[in-house]
């Protein structure tokens, strides 16, 4: 490679040919790292990462990807994401840009800049606020429309926490199954013993796993010969599985059934008058009353007033409302001055305590406390972005919830008040706080804070109170999660322990949006995940002319449904229910299509795939991937 002499390295970097047709990821957080890995390893796409520093946060992990010669990852460092930084990242020639920061305002600002630099750019923007995200998407799409690139440029607004929350809730609610809505049809995972042959609503067998496994990475082996779940097995593998194997299936629920509903409403308990009349307020009233009685006694002794009249005069003196004691003895005048000075000192303190108690009473009245007889609920620790989305999901499913949060100003506190969900303010690692949340009678504990140490400590503290408590922890590092699981499995063999990573669950959806394909949702199988996505046969011409049985690939992907609607009438987002107003319109998807159906180029499919399988399906260049289809009937 030729080197331009006498040119600084920074300028030489600018003089190099800039990439084009690549993907740009902006950020150095866990989602940025997972997303870059997904795009580079699974989709084999050239990726440019725009981050503040290679040395901070997850910059070293992204730097390791850039040093891998098998990957096409490029890093651009910029302290601030301005027009110059976006140009150095090649946004003007890029296909897609993903903004992964947790700051909604910063992401929106960058998206507006990028849309101006490249009207054709496909934008994937991380926004927590749903209503704001909808308006921003409309604004950015209108900008592309005004520039004449509406058919090429798309804007997808996603929330990492909202994407990951259903999978986390599913891990806590054993027996409910993971639910996923596709074009108004709700799908749910369910587990069956190998001897039982489910029928009716069963769409597909997603996985085979050992009977004693707990759907967690790092689980022990078993007599079935399976050390971990076998994803998307073939019919032959299902038939040859040992009798004690558990089959994880995907089943259809009745039309228009959905876990949506009004937020969970729970009866409001009695008002917390104990907070209004606190011990501090009682002590303040006692001090003022004692002072009034003392000065009333002195007034009675120094004047000829009756006892009740002396009490009345002393009270007026304390409040500063009495007439000056002119023409009376010096004893009375000195006593009046002392009484007034004492009142001036104590009355403001009394008012301060009253106002403080009123504020605490108002907050406690709007924030429910856990009822004493509460049982069978889920305890959610942390009401940040992820905890709030988990709370929303549990309320949609009408599952009783108790939240624990250290910060009274956390994002989800107001949401909990609106849903009338009990909240305990305190440190979740404290046994007293967990006892107040009734964790001993709960069905599960979900630790959703951003601090892995706090999540682990809270889980261990809860297990000390109840050894068989089901625990779901939010953990990022896979190695740490596996080590924690094995230790807790050995220490508490009767309990279920699971861990989930927000970025791991959300990255496939972000990657699919960047590739211009639609990833409807993720189905967790332990710490592994299956993805439900929409695939156009026109983008995979290798599949045209094959039957569905031939197009399926065990261990990689399986076709679940065929879209029967015309190309012009197809909906953009199958992850949302049909917008039909007051009348219900049936879904245009044919679930479980005939295995002998021959695929055409105009067909659109709903598939369930592994991460590697979806990466192969969604690669933009077909010559990088050669499909290996199984013989007919083996799928």
TrEMBL record:
Keywords: Membrane, Transmembrane, Transmembrane helix
InterPro entries the UniProt entry points to: NAD(P)-bd_dom_sf, RCK_N, Trk_Ktr_HKT_K-transport
The RCK N-terminal domain, residue ranges: 20-148, 375-497
Membrane-spanning residues: 281-299, 305-322, 334-355
Organism: Allostreptomyces psammosilenae
Full protein name: Trk K+ transport system NAD-binding subunit
GO biological process: potassium ion transport
């Amino acid at each position: 490679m030729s080197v331009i002499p006498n040119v600084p390295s920074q300028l030489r970097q600018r003089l190099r040919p800039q990439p084009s047709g690549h993907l740009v990821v902006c950020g150095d957080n866990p989602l940025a790292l997972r997303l870059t890995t997904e795009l580079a390893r699974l989709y084999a796409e050239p990726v440019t990462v725009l981050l503040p520093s290679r040395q901070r946060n997850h910059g070293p992990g992204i730097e390791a990807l850039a040093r891998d010669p098998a990957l096409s990852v490029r890093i651009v460092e910029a302290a601030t994401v301005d027009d110059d930084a976006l140009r150095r990242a090649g946004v003007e020639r890029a296909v897609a840009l993903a903004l992964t920061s947790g700051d909604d305002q910063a992401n929106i600002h960058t998206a507006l800049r990028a849309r101006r630099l490249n009207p054709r750019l496909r934008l994937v923007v991380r926004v927590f606020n749903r209503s704001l995200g909808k308006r921003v998407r409309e604004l950015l799409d209108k900008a592309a429309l005004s520039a004449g690139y509406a058919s090429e440029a798309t804007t997808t607004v996603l929330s990492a926490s909202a994407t990951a929350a259903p999978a986390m809730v599913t891990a806590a609610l054993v027996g409910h199954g993971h639910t996923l809505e596709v074009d108004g049809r709700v799908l749910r995972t369910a587990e069956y013993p190998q001897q039982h042959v489910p029928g009716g609503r069963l769409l597909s067998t997603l996985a085979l796993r050992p009977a004693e496994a707990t759907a967690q990475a790092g689980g022990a082996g078993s007599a079935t010969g399976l050390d971990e779940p076998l994803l998307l097995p073939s019919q032959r593998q299902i038939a040859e599985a040992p009798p004690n194997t558990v089959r994880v299936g995907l089943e259809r629920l009745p039309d228009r059934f959905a876990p949506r509903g009004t937020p969970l409403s729970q009866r409001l308990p009695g008002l917390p008058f104990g907070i209004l009349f606190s011990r501090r307020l009682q002590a303040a009233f006692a001090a003022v009353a004692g002072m009034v009685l003392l000065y009333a006694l002195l007034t009675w002794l120094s004047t000829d007033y009756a006892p009740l009249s002396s009490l009345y005069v002393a009270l007026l003196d304390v409040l500063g409302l009495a007439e000056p004691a002119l023409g009376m003895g010096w004893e009375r005048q000195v006593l009046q001055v002392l009484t007034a000075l004492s009142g001036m000192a104590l009355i403001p303190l009394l008012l301060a305590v009253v106002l403080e108690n009123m504020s605490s009473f108002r907050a406690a009245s709007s924030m429910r406390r856990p009822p004493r007889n509460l049982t069978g609920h889920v305890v959610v620790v942390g009401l940040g972005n992820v905890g709030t989305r988990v709370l929303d999901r549990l309320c949609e499913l009408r599952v009783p919830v108790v939240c624990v949060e250290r910060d009274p100003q956390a994002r989800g506190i107001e949401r909990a008040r609106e849903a009338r969900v009990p909240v305990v303010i305190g440190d979740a690692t404290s046994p007293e706080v967990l006892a107040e949340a009734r964790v001993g009678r709960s069905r599960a504990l979900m630790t959703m804070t951003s601090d892995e140490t706090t999540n682990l400590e809270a889980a261990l503290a809860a297990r000390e109170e109840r050894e068989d408590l089901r625990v779901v922890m939010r953990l990022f590092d896979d190695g740490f999660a596996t080590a924690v699981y094995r230790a807790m499995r050995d220490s508490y063999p009767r309990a279920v322990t699971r861990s989930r990573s927000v970025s791991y669950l959300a990255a496939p959806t972000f990657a699919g949006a960047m590739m211009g394909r639609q990833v409807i949702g993720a189905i967790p199988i332990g710490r592994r995940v299956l993805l439900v996505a929409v695939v156009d046969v026109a983008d995979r011409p290798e599949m045209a002319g094959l039957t569905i049985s031939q197009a399926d690939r065990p261990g990689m992907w399986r076709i679940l449904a065929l879209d029967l609607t015309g190309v012009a009438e197809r909906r953009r987002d199958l992850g949302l229910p049909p917008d039909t107003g007051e009348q219900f319109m049936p879904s245009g998807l044919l679930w479980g299509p005939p295995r002998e159906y021959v695929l055409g180029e105009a067909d659109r499919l709903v598939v369930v795939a592994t991460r590697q399988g979806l990466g192969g399906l969604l690669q933009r260049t077909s010559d990088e991937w050669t499909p290996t289809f199984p013989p007919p009937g083996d799928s």
